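BUG-500 | component: ligand-complex export | severity: low

The export step for alpha-L-arabinofuranose jobs runs without errors, but we want the raw record kept on the ticket for reference. Input record follows.
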Amino acid sequence: ADETITLTLDTDAPAITIAPEIYGQFAEHLGSCIYGGIWVGEDSSIPNTSGYRNDVISAFKELHIPVLRWPGGCFADEYHWVDGIGPKENRPRMVNNNWGGTVEDNSFGTHEFFNLCELIGTEPYLSGNVGSGSVEELAKWVEYITAADGPMAKLRKENGREKPWKLKYLGVGNESWGCGGNFTPEFYADVYRRYQTYCRNFNGNHLYKIASGASDYDYKWTDVLMKNAGNLMDGISLHYYTTPGWTGSKGSATKFTDDDYYWTLGKCLEIEDVIKKHADIMDKYDPKKRVGLLVDEWGTWWDQEPGSIPGHLYQQNTMRDAMVAALSLNVFHKYTDRVKMANIAQIANVLQSMVLTKDDKMVLTPTYYVFKMYVPHQGARMIPVTAQFPEMKVRSERSDTLRTLPMLSATASEKDGVVTVSMTNISLDKAYKIEIPLGDIKAKNITGEILTSDNIAAYNDFDHPNDVKIKPFDTKNVKVKKGVLSLTLPAKSIVTLSLR
Ligand code: AHR
Protein backbone atom coordinates (compact mmCIF):
# COMPACT_ATOMS: atom_id res chain seq x y z
CA ALA A 1 0.00 0.00 0.00
CA ASP A 2 1.68 3.24 -1.04
CA GLU A 3 -1.16 5.73 -0.70
CA THR A 4 -2.14 6.82 2.82
CA ILE A 5 -5.68 7.93 3.61
CA THR A 6 -6.50 9.71 6.86
CA LEU A 7 -9.92 9.11 8.40
CA THR A 8 -11.03 11.90 10.72
CA LEU A 9 -13.55 10.78 13.32
CA ASP A 10 -15.56 13.71 14.72
CA THR A 11 -16.27 12.46 18.23
CA ASP A 12 -17.50 15.94 19.26
CA ALA A 13 -20.32 16.00 16.72
CA PRO A 14 -23.86 16.41 18.17
CA ALA A 15 -25.10 13.04 19.35
CA ILE A 16 -27.34 11.20 16.91
CA THR A 17 -28.28 7.54 17.15
CA ILE A 18 -28.04 5.26 14.13
CA ALA A 19 -31.66 4.10 13.82
CA PRO A 20 -31.45 0.34 14.43
CA GLU A 21 -34.32 -0.03 11.93
CA ILE A 22 -31.81 0.71 9.13
CA TYR A 23 -31.02 -2.99 9.57
CA GLY A 24 -34.60 -3.95 8.71
CA GLN A 25 -35.53 -6.80 6.41
CA PHE A 26 -38.29 -7.48 3.92
CA ALA A 27 -40.14 -10.79 3.37
CA GLU A 28 -42.64 -11.01 0.53
CA HIS A 29 -44.83 -13.83 -0.70
CA LEU A 30 -42.56 -14.15 -3.71
CA GLY A 31 -40.78 -17.24 -4.97
CA SER A 32 -39.32 -19.19 -2.07
CA CYS A 33 -38.86 -16.32 0.35
CA ILE A 34 -41.67 -17.42 2.68
CA TYR A 35 -42.51 -20.93 1.46
CA GLY A 36 -39.41 -23.09 1.60
CA GLY A 37 -37.15 -20.26 2.75
CA ILE A 38 -38.67 -19.51 6.15
CA TRP A 39 -41.79 -21.62 6.44
CA VAL A 40 -41.90 -25.35 5.73
CA GLY A 41 -44.89 -26.30 7.90
CA GLU A 42 -44.97 -28.49 11.00
CA ASP A 43 -45.10 -31.73 9.01
CA SER A 44 -41.94 -31.08 7.01
CA SER A 45 -38.93 -33.41 7.26
CA ILE A 46 -36.77 -30.26 7.31
CA PRO A 47 -35.94 -29.56 10.97
CA ASN A 48 -38.37 -26.89 12.14
CA THR A 49 -39.99 -25.28 15.14
CA SER A 50 -43.76 -24.96 14.68
CA GLY A 51 -43.20 -24.84 10.92
CA TYR A 52 -40.27 -22.37 10.81
CA ARG A 53 -36.92 -23.73 9.56
CA ASN A 54 -34.48 -24.05 12.47
CA ASP A 55 -31.37 -23.24 10.40
CA VAL A 56 -32.87 -20.07 8.96
CA ILE A 57 -34.32 -18.92 12.28
CA SER A 58 -31.00 -19.24 14.08
CA ALA A 59 -29.24 -17.39 11.24
CA PHE A 60 -31.80 -14.57 11.50
CA LYS A 61 -31.41 -14.36 15.28
CA GLU A 62 -27.70 -13.60 14.89
CA LEU A 63 -28.54 -10.50 12.86
CA HIS A 64 -30.70 -8.91 15.61
CA ILE A 65 -33.25 -7.94 12.98
CA PRO A 66 -35.08 -4.86 14.32
CA VAL A 67 -38.03 -4.86 11.91
CA LEU A 68 -39.48 -7.16 9.26
CA ARG A 69 -41.73 -5.91 6.45
CA TRP A 70 -44.48 -8.25 5.15
CA PRO A 71 -46.40 -9.48 3.05
CA GLY A 72 -45.16 -7.35 0.11
CA GLY A 73 -44.14 -5.63 -2.11
CA CYS A 74 -46.52 -5.86 -4.98
CA PHE A 75 -48.11 -8.91 -3.36
CA ALA A 76 -49.45 -6.72 -0.53
CA ASP A 77 -51.90 -4.88 -2.78
CA GLU A 78 -53.55 -8.14 -3.86
CA TYR A 79 -53.46 -9.78 -0.45
CA HIS A 80 -56.66 -10.28 1.52
CA TRP A 81 -55.74 -11.03 5.10
CA VAL A 82 -58.95 -12.88 5.94
CA ASP A 83 -57.82 -15.60 3.50
CA GLY A 84 -54.83 -16.29 5.75
CA ILE A 85 -56.52 -16.92 9.10
CA GLY A 86 -58.43 -19.84 10.61
CA PRO A 87 -58.00 -23.57 9.97
CA LYS A 88 -55.49 -24.11 7.16
CA GLU A 89 -57.70 -26.55 5.29
CA ASN A 90 -60.37 -23.86 4.94
CA ARG A 91 -58.05 -21.16 3.64
CA PRO A 92 -58.72 -20.30 0.00
CA ARG A 93 -55.99 -20.57 -2.59
CA MET A 94 -55.09 -17.63 -4.80
CA VAL A 95 -52.89 -16.94 -7.79
CA ASN A 96 -49.84 -14.80 -7.08
CA ASN A 97 -50.30 -12.63 -10.16
CA ASN A 98 -47.23 -10.53 -9.61
CA TRP A 99 -44.75 -13.31 -9.16
CA GLY A 100 -44.91 -16.08 -11.71
CA GLY A 101 -48.59 -17.00 -11.31
CA THR A 102 -47.65 -19.41 -8.52
CA VAL A 103 -50.57 -20.73 -6.49
CA GLU A 104 -50.55 -19.40 -2.94
CA ASP A 105 -52.31 -21.59 -0.40
CA ASN A 106 -52.41 -18.94 2.34
CA SER A 107 -50.92 -21.36 4.86
CA PHE A 108 -48.64 -18.54 6.03
CA GLY A 109 -50.87 -15.72 7.24
CA THR A 110 -51.20 -13.17 10.01
CA HIS A 111 -50.68 -15.58 12.94
CA GLU A 112 -47.72 -17.25 11.26
CA PHE A 113 -46.12 -13.85 10.59
CA PHE A 114 -46.62 -12.42 14.06
CA ASN A 115 -45.41 -15.64 15.67
CA LEU A 116 -42.31 -15.48 13.45
CA CYS A 117 -41.65 -11.94 14.64
CA GLU A 118 -41.95 -13.09 18.26
CA LEU A 119 -39.62 -16.02 17.57
CA ILE A 120 -36.84 -13.87 16.14
CA GLY A 121 -37.52 -10.85 18.36
CA THR A 122 -38.37 -8.38 15.62
CA GLU A 123 -40.90 -5.59 15.20
CA PRO A 124 -43.55 -6.40 12.56
CA TYR A 125 -44.12 -3.97 9.67
CA LEU A 126 -47.35 -4.64 7.79
CA SER A 127 -47.91 -3.46 4.26
CA GLY A 128 -51.63 -2.89 3.85
CA ASN A 129 -53.67 -3.50 0.72
CA VAL A 130 -54.80 -0.21 -0.81
CA GLY A 131 -54.67 -1.12 -4.51
CA SER A 132 -57.32 -3.86 -4.54
CA GLY A 133 -58.53 -3.72 -0.96
CA SER A 134 -60.83 -1.46 0.99
CA VAL A 135 -60.61 0.92 3.92
CA GLU A 136 -62.79 -1.46 5.91
CA GLU A 137 -60.49 -4.39 5.19
CA LEU A 138 -57.38 -2.58 6.38
CA ALA A 139 -59.13 -1.07 9.41
CA LYS A 140 -60.33 -4.52 10.45
CA TRP A 141 -56.88 -6.03 10.02
CA VAL A 142 -55.46 -3.52 12.49
CA GLU A 143 -58.35 -4.26 14.85
CA TYR A 144 -57.89 -8.04 14.49
CA ILE A 145 -54.24 -7.74 15.45
CA THR A 146 -54.31 -5.12 18.19
CA ALA A 147 -57.76 -4.95 19.83
CA ALA A 148 -58.38 -6.60 23.20
CA ASP A 149 -62.12 -6.73 22.75
CA GLY A 150 -64.82 -6.52 20.07
CA PRO A 151 -65.73 -8.63 17.05
CA MET A 152 -62.25 -8.76 15.49
CA ALA A 153 -60.60 -9.62 18.80
CA LYS A 154 -63.19 -12.38 19.24
CA LEU A 155 -62.29 -13.82 15.86
CA ARG A 156 -58.58 -13.69 16.69
CA LYS A 157 -59.21 -15.49 19.96
CA GLU A 158 -61.24 -18.17 18.18
CA ASN A 159 -58.19 -18.64 15.96
CA GLY A 160 -56.00 -19.34 18.96
CA ARG A 161 -54.48 -16.02 19.95
CA GLU A 162 -55.87 -14.58 23.16
CA LYS A 163 -53.61 -11.58 23.70
CA PRO A 164 -53.48 -8.82 21.10
CA TRP A 165 -50.17 -8.37 19.34
CA LYS A 166 -48.34 -5.08 19.22
CA LEU A 167 -48.22 -3.45 15.81
CA LYS A 168 -46.12 -0.38 15.26
CA TYR A 169 -45.32 -0.03 11.57
CA LEU A 170 -48.23 0.13 9.15
CA GLY A 171 -47.66 0.81 5.46
CA VAL A 172 -50.67 2.22 3.61
CA GLY A 173 -50.10 0.53 0.25
CA ASN A 174 -46.91 -0.29 -1.64
CA GLU A 175 -45.57 1.35 -4.80
CA SER A 176 -48.94 3.04 -5.21
CA TRP A 177 -47.56 4.76 -8.33
CA GLY A 178 -47.15 1.32 -9.96
CA CYS A 179 -48.15 -2.24 -8.99
CA GLY A 180 -50.03 -0.83 -5.98
CA GLY A 181 -52.72 0.87 -8.06
CA ASN A 182 -51.10 3.20 -10.62
CA PHE A 183 -52.24 6.24 -8.69
CA THR A 184 -51.24 9.82 -9.39
CA PRO A 185 -49.53 11.41 -6.38
CA GLU A 186 -52.47 13.80 -5.85
CA PHE A 187 -55.02 10.98 -5.86
CA TYR A 188 -52.91 8.72 -3.66
CA ALA A 189 -52.38 11.53 -1.13
CA ASP A 190 -56.17 11.78 -0.73
CA VAL A 191 -56.56 8.01 -0.54
CA TYR A 192 -53.80 7.89 2.08
CA ARG A 193 -55.57 10.55 4.15
CA ARG A 194 -58.76 8.50 4.10
CA TYR A 195 -57.21 5.07 4.84
CA GLN A 196 -55.08 6.25 7.71
CA THR A 197 -58.11 7.86 9.40
CA TYR A 198 -59.65 4.46 10.08
CA CYS A 199 -56.49 2.69 11.21
CA ARG A 200 -57.03 3.15 14.92
CA ASN A 201 -54.89 2.87 18.00
CA PHE A 202 -56.43 0.15 20.19
CA ASN A 203 -55.54 -0.55 23.82
CA GLY A 204 -52.41 1.57 24.01
CA ASN A 205 -51.04 0.31 20.71
CA HIS A 206 -49.61 3.20 18.73
CA LEU A 207 -49.35 2.97 14.95
CA TYR A 208 -46.47 4.54 13.06
CA LYS A 209 -48.19 5.25 9.74
CA ILE A 210 -46.21 5.02 6.54
CA ALA A 211 -47.23 6.49 3.20
CA SER A 212 -46.21 4.66 0.04
CA GLY A 213 -43.38 6.77 -1.29
CA ALA A 214 -41.39 7.39 -4.41
CA SER A 215 -39.13 5.24 -6.47
CA ASP A 216 -35.63 6.48 -7.26
CA TYR A 217 -35.74 9.90 -8.91
CA ASP A 218 -39.48 10.65 -8.60
CA TYR A 219 -39.13 13.81 -6.53
CA LYS A 220 -42.57 15.08 -7.50
CA TRP A 221 -44.18 12.13 -5.69
CA THR A 222 -42.45 13.07 -2.43
CA ASP A 223 -43.29 16.73 -2.88
CA VAL A 224 -47.01 16.18 -3.44
CA LEU A 225 -47.29 13.61 -0.65
CA MET A 226 -45.50 15.81 1.86
CA LYS A 227 -47.54 18.83 0.86
CA ASN A 228 -50.95 17.15 0.85
CA ALA A 229 -50.63 14.54 3.58
CA GLY A 230 -47.32 15.10 5.41
CA ASN A 231 -49.11 16.07 8.64
CA LEU A 232 -50.90 12.70 8.75
CA MET A 233 -47.91 10.41 8.33
CA ASP A 234 -44.99 9.29 10.48
CA GLY A 235 -42.93 7.97 7.61
CA ILE A 236 -42.76 7.98 3.85
CA SER A 237 -41.01 5.25 1.92
CA LEU A 238 -38.43 5.28 -0.85
CA HIS A 239 -37.45 2.39 -3.11
CA TYR A 240 -34.04 2.30 -4.73
CA TYR A 241 -32.58 -0.76 -6.42
CA THR A 242 -29.02 -1.15 -7.68
CA THR A 243 -29.85 -2.51 -11.10
CA PRO A 244 -28.93 -1.63 -14.69
CA GLY A 245 -32.58 -0.89 -15.55
CA TRP A 246 -36.14 -2.14 -15.81
CA THR A 247 -36.18 -3.39 -19.37
CA GLY A 248 -34.07 -6.15 -20.90
CA SER A 249 -31.37 -8.10 -19.13
CA LYS A 250 -30.15 -6.87 -15.77
CA GLY A 251 -26.95 -8.89 -16.07
CA SER A 252 -25.78 -12.00 -14.29
CA ALA A 253 -25.34 -11.98 -10.53
CA THR A 254 -22.11 -13.94 -10.80
CA LYS A 255 -20.57 -13.24 -14.22
CA PHE A 256 -19.51 -9.65 -14.66
CA THR A 257 -16.58 -7.61 -15.89
CA ASP A 258 -14.48 -5.21 -13.86
CA ASP A 259 -16.33 -2.36 -15.60
CA ASP A 260 -19.70 -3.86 -14.62
CA TYR A 261 -18.43 -4.10 -11.06
CA TYR A 262 -17.40 -0.45 -10.79
CA TRP A 263 -20.55 0.64 -12.63
CA THR A 264 -22.64 -1.22 -10.04
CA LEU A 265 -20.96 0.49 -7.13
CA GLY A 266 -21.41 3.86 -8.82
CA LYS A 267 -25.11 3.17 -9.26
CA CYS A 268 -25.32 1.99 -5.65
CA LEU A 269 -23.69 5.15 -4.32
CA GLU A 270 -26.02 7.35 -6.31
CA ILE A 271 -28.49 6.57 -3.56
CA GLU A 272 -26.77 9.29 -1.54
CA ASP A 273 -27.79 11.98 -4.01
CA VAL A 274 -31.30 10.50 -4.25
CA ILE A 275 -31.71 10.51 -0.45
CA LYS A 276 -30.41 14.06 -0.22
CA LYS A 277 -32.91 15.30 -2.82
CA HIS A 278 -35.90 13.57 -1.21
CA ALA A 279 -34.73 14.76 2.23
CA ASP A 280 -34.43 18.35 0.97
CA ILE A 281 -38.04 18.23 -0.20
CA MET A 282 -39.11 16.81 3.16
CA ASP A 283 -37.20 19.60 4.94
CA LYS A 284 -39.38 22.14 3.12
CA TYR A 285 -42.55 20.75 4.69
CA ASP A 286 -41.12 19.19 7.82
CA PRO A 287 -38.07 21.17 8.96
CA LYS A 288 -38.12 19.46 12.37
CA LYS A 289 -37.65 16.07 10.70
CA ARG A 290 -40.66 14.50 12.37
CA VAL A 291 -41.41 12.32 9.35
CA GLY A 292 -38.96 9.51 8.63
CA LEU A 293 -37.68 8.65 5.18
CA LEU A 294 -37.83 4.85 5.09
CA VAL A 295 -35.88 3.10 2.35
CA ASP A 296 -38.13 0.09 2.69
CA GLU A 297 -36.85 -1.65 -0.47
CA TRP A 298 -33.23 -1.54 -1.58
CA GLY A 299 -30.48 -3.83 -2.85
CA THR A 300 -29.21 -5.41 -6.04
CA TRP A 301 -31.50 -6.79 -8.71
CA TRP A 302 -29.91 -9.13 -11.28
CA ASP A 303 -31.24 -11.62 -13.80
CA GLN A 304 -32.69 -14.67 -12.09
CA GLU A 305 -30.36 -17.66 -11.84
CA PRO A 306 -30.46 -19.82 -14.99
CA GLY A 307 -32.91 -22.70 -14.48
CA SER A 308 -34.80 -21.04 -11.63
CA ILE A 309 -38.56 -20.44 -11.81
CA PRO A 310 -39.45 -17.34 -13.87
CA GLY A 311 -40.82 -14.54 -11.73
CA HIS A 312 -39.29 -15.88 -8.52
CA LEU A 313 -36.34 -13.45 -8.53
CA TYR A 314 -33.90 -16.04 -7.20
CA GLN A 315 -30.36 -14.70 -7.56
CA GLN A 316 -26.87 -15.54 -6.30
CA ASN A 317 -24.96 -13.16 -4.11
CA THR A 318 -21.24 -12.39 -4.49
CA MET A 319 -18.63 -10.18 -2.89
CA ARG A 320 -19.91 -7.47 -5.26
CA ASP A 321 -23.28 -7.63 -3.46
CA ALA A 322 -21.47 -7.46 -0.12
CA MET A 323 -19.84 -4.22 -1.31
CA VAL A 324 -23.27 -2.80 -2.23
CA ALA A 325 -24.54 -3.69 1.24
CA ALA A 326 -21.63 -2.02 3.04
CA LEU A 327 -21.68 1.14 0.91
CA SER A 328 -25.46 1.51 1.25
CA LEU A 329 -25.44 1.02 5.03
CA ASN A 330 -22.68 3.64 5.31
CA VAL A 331 -24.89 6.13 3.44
CA PHE A 332 -27.93 5.30 5.61
CA HIS A 333 -25.84 5.95 8.73
CA LYS A 334 -24.77 9.32 7.39
CA TYR A 335 -28.37 10.46 6.81
CA THR A 336 -29.90 8.80 9.87
CA ASP A 337 -31.25 12.20 10.99
CA ARG A 338 -33.88 11.60 8.27
CA VAL A 339 -33.43 7.95 7.27
CA LYS A 340 -35.21 6.11 10.07
CA MET A 341 -35.54 2.69 8.48
CA ALA A 342 -34.30 0.61 5.56
CA ASN A 343 -35.40 -2.88 4.53
CA ILE A 344 -33.16 -4.79 2.20
CA ALA A 345 -34.97 -6.80 -0.48
CA GLN A 346 -35.30 -9.58 0.56
CA ILE A 347 -34.53 -11.76 3.55
CA ALA A 348 -34.46 -15.23 1.89
CA ASN A 349 -34.08 -16.59 -1.65
CA VAL A 350 -35.20 -13.38 -3.37
CA LEU A 351 -32.97 -10.61 -4.80
CA GLN A 352 -30.13 -9.58 -2.44
CA SER A 353 -30.91 -12.09 0.23
CA MET A 354 -29.38 -13.02 3.57
CA VAL A 355 -29.82 -16.75 3.11
CA LEU A 356 -30.34 -19.16 0.21
CA THR A 357 -32.05 -22.47 0.78
CA LYS A 358 -32.48 -25.64 -1.20
CA ASP A 359 -34.47 -28.45 0.40
CA ASP A 360 -32.83 -28.95 3.79
CA LYS A 361 -29.67 -26.99 2.93
CA MET A 362 -28.99 -23.35 3.70
CA VAL A 363 -26.10 -21.03 2.89
CA LEU A 364 -25.34 -17.61 4.30
CA THR A 365 -24.60 -15.02 1.63
CA PRO A 366 -21.77 -12.45 1.60
CA THR A 367 -24.48 -9.83 2.24
CA TYR A 368 -25.51 -11.73 5.39
CA TYR A 369 -21.96 -11.39 6.67
CA VAL A 370 -21.94 -7.61 6.15
CA PHE A 371 -25.12 -7.32 8.21
CA LYS A 372 -23.49 -9.49 10.87
CA MET A 373 -20.30 -7.42 10.98
CA TYR A 374 -22.37 -4.23 11.25
CA VAL A 375 -24.55 -5.34 14.21
CA PRO A 376 -22.56 -3.14 16.66
CA HIS A 377 -23.64 -0.03 14.71
CA GLN A 378 -27.34 -0.67 15.43
CA GLY A 379 -28.56 1.98 17.85
CA ALA A 380 -25.02 3.31 18.42
CA ARG A 381 -24.05 6.98 18.43
CA MET A 382 -22.99 7.92 14.93
CA ILE A 383 -19.50 9.39 14.62
CA PRO A 384 -19.16 11.36 11.37
CA VAL A 385 -16.11 10.36 9.32
CA THR A 386 -14.40 12.66 6.84
CA ALA A 387 -11.55 11.83 4.48
CA GLN A 388 -10.12 12.66 1.08
CA PHE A 389 -10.74 9.43 -0.78
CA PRO A 390 -9.07 8.67 -4.11
CA GLU A 391 -11.63 8.57 -6.91
CA MET A 392 -12.26 7.06 -10.29
CA LYS A 393 -14.79 7.95 -12.99
CA VAL A 394 -17.49 5.52 -14.05
CA ARG A 395 -20.10 5.77 -16.73
CA SER A 396 -23.55 6.91 -15.60
CA GLU A 397 -26.53 5.21 -17.26
CA ARG A 398 -28.77 8.24 -16.97
CA SER A 399 -26.71 10.53 -19.19
CA ASP A 400 -23.44 10.49 -21.03
CA THR A 401 -21.74 12.01 -18.03
CA LEU A 402 -19.24 10.22 -15.85
CA ARG A 403 -19.94 9.76 -12.20
CA THR A 404 -17.29 9.97 -9.51
CA LEU A 405 -16.67 6.85 -7.51
CA PRO A 406 -14.65 7.03 -4.28
CA MET A 407 -12.46 3.95 -3.86
CA LEU A 408 -13.08 3.79 -0.12
CA SER A 409 -15.94 4.28 2.26
CA ALA A 410 -16.07 4.36 6.05
CA THR A 411 -18.48 4.70 8.93
CA ALA A 412 -18.02 4.82 12.70
CA SER A 413 -20.09 4.72 15.85
CA GLU A 414 -19.83 4.37 19.59
CA LYS A 415 -21.84 2.26 22.01
CA ASP A 416 -21.08 1.28 25.61
CA GLY A 417 -17.57 2.69 25.37
CA VAL A 418 -16.70 0.66 22.26
CA VAL A 419 -15.90 2.52 19.04
CA THR A 420 -16.68 0.54 15.89
CA VAL A 421 -15.07 1.60 12.62
CA SER A 422 -16.13 -0.10 9.39
CA MET A 423 -14.04 0.49 6.27
CA THR A 424 -14.56 -0.68 2.71
CA ASN A 425 -11.93 -0.73 -0.03
CA ILE A 426 -13.69 -1.34 -3.34
CA SER A 427 -10.52 -1.34 -5.43
CA LEU A 428 -9.98 -4.61 -7.27
CA ASP A 429 -6.21 -4.35 -7.09
CA LYS A 430 -4.98 -1.72 -4.70
CA ALA A 431 -4.49 -1.81 -0.93
CA TYR A 432 -4.51 1.48 0.98
CA LYS A 433 -2.80 2.51 4.16
CA ILE A 434 -5.34 3.99 6.58
CA GLU A 435 -4.49 6.32 9.43
CA ILE A 436 -6.97 7.29 12.15
CA PRO A 437 -5.94 10.00 14.65
CA LEU A 438 -7.50 8.71 17.87
CA GLY A 439 -7.95 11.90 19.92
CA ASP A 440 -9.79 10.73 23.03
CA ILE A 441 -10.80 7.35 21.59
CA LYS A 442 -9.44 4.48 23.64
CA ALA A 443 -7.74 1.73 21.65
CA LYS A 444 -6.06 -0.41 24.29
CA ASN A 445 -7.88 -3.44 23.07
CA ILE A 446 -8.42 -3.80 19.32
CA THR A 447 -10.27 -6.61 17.61
CA GLY A 448 -11.34 -6.83 14.01
CA GLU A 449 -13.10 -8.82 11.31
CA ILE A 450 -12.63 -8.92 7.56
CA LEU A 451 -14.80 -10.02 4.65
CA THR A 452 -12.82 -10.46 1.45
CA SER A 453 -12.03 -12.84 -1.35
CA ASP A 454 -9.41 -13.08 -4.09
CA ASN A 455 -12.29 -13.24 -6.51
CA ILE A 456 -14.84 -10.40 -6.40
CA ALA A 457 -17.38 -12.75 -8.02
CA ALA A 458 -16.96 -15.36 -5.26
CA TYR A 459 -20.15 -16.66 -3.66
CA ASN A 460 -21.42 -19.43 -1.42
CA ASP A 461 -23.50 -22.26 -2.82
CA PHE A 462 -24.79 -25.56 -1.54
CA ASP A 463 -21.62 -27.43 -2.57
CA HIS A 464 -19.28 -24.67 -1.35
CA PRO A 465 -21.06 -22.99 1.55
CA ASN A 466 -17.96 -21.35 3.02
CA ASP A 467 -16.16 -19.71 0.10
CA VAL A 468 -16.93 -16.25 1.45
CA LYS A 469 -17.14 -15.71 5.17
CA ILE A 470 -16.02 -13.42 7.95
CA LYS A 471 -12.46 -14.00 9.19
CA PRO A 472 -10.66 -12.40 12.11
CA PHE A 473 -8.69 -9.37 10.97
CA ASP A 474 -5.07 -9.89 11.91
CA THR A 475 -4.52 -7.12 14.43
CA LYS A 476 -0.74 -7.45 14.02
CA ASN A 477 -1.60 -5.36 10.97
CA VAL A 478 -2.98 -2.59 13.23
CA LYS A 479 -0.50 -0.25 14.94
CA VAL A 480 -1.04 2.60 17.36
CA LYS A 481 1.78 5.11 17.48
CA LYS A 482 1.65 8.60 18.95
CA GLY A 483 -2.13 8.53 19.12
CA VAL A 484 -2.56 7.48 15.48
CA LEU A 485 -3.96 4.10 14.55
CA SER A 486 -2.77 2.70 11.24
CA LEU A 487 -3.47 -0.37 9.19
CA THR A 488 -3.42 -1.64 5.64
CA LEU A 489 -6.82 -2.13 4.08
CA PRO A 490 -6.50 -4.86 1.45
CA ALA A 491 -8.11 -4.56 -1.99
CA LYS A 492 -11.72 -5.87 -2.23
CA SER A 493 -12.25 -5.87 1.50
CA ILE A 494 -14.69 -4.84 4.20
CA VAL A 495 -13.11 -4.50 7.64
CA THR A 496 -14.70 -3.71 10.99
CA LEU A 497 -12.53 -2.76 13.97
CA SER A 498 -13.69 -2.57 17.57
CA LEU A 499 -11.69 -0.22 19.75
CA ARG A 500 -12.04 -0.23 23.49
O1 AHR B 1 -38.87 -6.67 -4.11
C1 AHR B 1 -39.51 -7.05 -5.28
C2 AHR B 1 -40.52 -6.03 -5.77
O2 AHR B 1 -39.89 -4.84 -6.11
C3 AHR B 1 -41.58 -5.61 -4.79
O3 AHR B 1 -42.64 -6.48 -4.74
C4 AHR B 1 -42.02 -4.28 -5.33
O4 AHR B 1 -42.48 -3.41 -4.32
C5 AHR B 1 -40.78 -3.76 -6.03
O5 AHR B 1 -41.08 -3.32 -7.31
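Assignee comment: Attached the raw record above. Residues 28, 72-74, 174-175, 297, 345-346, 351 surround alpha-L-arabinofuranose (CB under 6 Å).
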